[in-house]
Amino acid sequence: MIRAVPLVLYMVLAIFPFWVRAQDTPIILFNVRTVVETILAIFFLGSLLLFGWGLLRFKFSKDPVVKTKAKDLMERGAIGAVAMAATWGLAIIIVNILGIPSEIPPP
Known about the structure:
The protein is an all-alpha fold. The protein has a domain of 51 residues. Helix content is 82%, strand content 0%. It contains three helices and no strands. The chain is elongated and about 65 Å long. The termini are far apart. This is DUF5671 domain-containing protein. Keywords: Membrane, Transmembrane, Transmembrane helix.
């Protein structure tokens, strides 16, 4: 119960500008879209780096145990890249359905 209080407080504070009309909805939605796209890009980059690290370890290693671990890294990186690409596509579909602006409208 105690852990839920800060979460509820953060949710209320996140929605508060809508209640008092402190910001326009398109500006807030644009900011949320920018944050989500940045997070997805960072995860996508991380999965590609994981794949690349596994590829380098596989190529330059002579130990079969290390090669097996490198194959696992490459598999995880490839699965992560596919998952991030699918998530990014789903996010674009949701953004288009909701009509979230891609640019901040002029004041």
